[in-house]
Amino acid sequence: MNNLHSRSPYVWERAPFLRLLLPLIAAIVCYDQEWLPHIHRNTILFSMIIALAATVAVCAYNIRFSLYGYLHSLVLFSTIFLAGWLCCQLNDHRYQKSWFGQYIDGASGFQVKLDEDPSERTKTWKLAVSVENVYSSDGVHPVTGKALLYLYKDSTGCSLRKGNKILVPNKWKAIENSGNPAAFDYQRFCNRNQIYYLQFLSCGEIVQLPFAKASQTWVDATHDWAMQALEKYIKDTPTLGLMQAMLLGEEDNFDADMRQAYAETGIIHVVAISGGHVMMLFWLIGGLFFWLRHKRYEFIKYLVAVPCVCFYVAVAGAPVSAVRAAVMFSFLASGYVLQKEREPINQLCVTAFFMLLYQPMWLLSVGFQLSFGAVLSLILFYQPILRLYAPTSFGLRKLWSVAAASIAAEVIVAPLVIYYFHLFPIGFLFANILAWLLMGLVLCAGLLLIAVSTLAPLASLLAIGMTEVVHFFNLIIEVLQNINPPAFSHLYLSGACLSLIYFIIACCSGLIPLRKQWVVPTILSTFCLILILLILRRWQTLQQQQLIVYNLRPNAYAELIAGERYYPVLNQTKIDPEKDFSTKAAHIQNAAWRKAEGKASGIFLHRGRSILILEEPPSPDTSLQLKVNYLIASFPLKHYHAPLLKRQFNFDKLIITGGQKTYIARQWKDSCERQNIPAHFTMFDGAFVLR
């Protein structure tokens, strides 16, 4: 009789830690979006104590009433929410008394330490630094915090290295976004990594302090030894760059075009040290213990694998993605060893819960979301997909298991990839199977080469074999990249559509409990709602007409967008709008990534408003009289003559493009404000958009 009324347990019953994870996620999101006012940490702590005391009192005296369950859950959720809010504040450098940002006013200089080797840019060297001391009129004070320095290049190059200490002036500027439509939110990205300020300096404005080189740690020594082993035997540059990136996290020598090809075919995870590398290392360690066949002793593999994985991540330079993967593997391995009845979803929730308590902003990292999304997708969909086909031969079973894993992982990962990166590789299945076969082999061969580097003949043979395999693999990836339709590299998914897609996935996987008769109607209704949103977006795309003058310092670029096409009207430095990140993002958001044919004109009409583009300074002939609504000046500014331009062209608004000297543009902006001349400076005000 009991069997008639039995039901499958809900997901929160099988994974009780999910109840704790959800309020923690809510707290992190609210803190990041600043939806709630700032609360002092002591107030939060006091509120948590009251909530815990209420819970203990109710449980101790066994108080029962009609709303007991709801009240108990509310108190628990409130406690976890406040704990998450408190962790966010504790990890926020702005609220620490020693943060250097609180000493900028009145400081004369700062001492900083390079956290990593300088990264080369087109005109500058990018330095990620930690601020250690502040110099002011009342002495030297120790401070903390992270910042960015950009050193302009000169003929001497950059001799700074990781660990060097330098003195810099007090020229900190708050990190700001470019202001271009649909541009990447670089300010929020840096803020989530506790970076709020930057400086642009010449090499003459810094002073390098004497640097006594500290004794090298055994981890750094192992890293350098592995790098030297790869450089000694692998002579092919593309292969060397790939192996250094795959094994040791050094991507400086990895070809940028090849990296883009890997990204567009859905195998960029091969390059970044992450969960795939950790699992490959675990399989290798498990293979060494093949003689432990009884499940009773299977925990030994995990006990050996965890320290090995941590050591490997440290040797690889401890990139954030690798650290997350190692921590995630350690938690899952611990849960596997300690629990008798293992629930994978609960173990995943435990891992995410403690990782987010340690570093709350990891939640908003794309790598974190992709890693946990892939694991959750494998837990939910791998076995159902695997059971769809049952090959008889051993080889086909292995290939089908890899294919099933790739398909299962894409169920949750693919919408995120489209949302963040606007692409979907149609050849992802073949590319991932090939990567599993060849790159897994190359990864093992690379580790073996490092291990036997003292045996020159064997190491050389391994290097030759790896080079041939990598050349073949890269050739196949380039072919897959070229066959991907252009439309699949310009996809756009709104936040509303993303939420609805995940609602459908949750219904299909059983995460959302629905009666059987309601599952199909609910999914179909949600799918219809997605179609309505897509139709509305399509209608808006066909109706749109806008002029965009981008903030692309030092470039000057403007374009018209009409319907599904864009039309450049200003491109002084001949940038490629199909490859530039700012213009490509705007094209994808507006669904106008196809270029219209035609020749740009210096003066034109846009929705009944006249627009004139000046690429050279006008003649001072005051007899010239024109009437335009918008005047776009892309020539280099010198002496202030905005009143002359106003008399000559009688414009309603003046737009000054990028590529100007900062101090001259600032003088123009201040003068225009004093004389009530309406002006828009893209380098200060962001892109100018006229709809």
List keywords for this structure.
22 helices; 19 strands; OB fold (Dihydrolipoamide Acetyltransferase, E2P); 5 domains; 14% strand; 691 residues; five-stranded mixed sheet; alpha+beta
Short structural description:
This protein has about 700 residues and is α+β, with helices and mostly antiparallel strands.
Describe the secondary-structure layout.
Layout: H1 11-14, H2 17-33, H3 41-60, H4 68-91, E1 107-114, E2 119-120, E3 124-136, E4 139-142, E5 146-152, E6 165-169, E7 173-174, H5 186-192, E8 195-201, E9 207-208, H6 218-233, H7 237-248, H8 256-264, H9 275-288, H10 299-315, H11 320-338, H12 344-358, H13 366-386, H14 394-421, H15 428-451, H16 456-483, H17 495-509, H18 516-543, E10 545-549, E11 557-562, E12 565-571, H19 581-589, E13 594-595, E14 603-606, E15 609-614, E16 630-633, H20 642-649, E17 653-656, H21 662-674, E18 679-681, H22 682-685, E19 688-690
Helix pairs in contact: 2-4, 2-12, 3-4, 6-7, 7-16, 8-16, 9-10, 10-11, 11-12, 12-13, 13-14, 14-15, 14-17, 15-16, 17-18
Description:
With 691 residues, the chain is an alpha+beta fold. It folds into five domains: 8-91; 100-208, OB fold (Dihydrolipoamide Acetyltransferase, E2P) (Beta Barrel), CATH 2.40.50; 218-489, no CATH class; 495-543; 545-690, no CATH class. Helices cover 51% and strands 14% of the residues. Strands 1, 2, 3, 4, 5, 6, 7, 8 and 9 form a nine-stranded mixed sheet that branches. A hairpin with a 2-residue loop joins strand 3 and strand 4. Helix 11 (320-338) crosses helix 12 (344-358) and helix 14 (394-421) runs antiparallel to helix 17 (495-509).
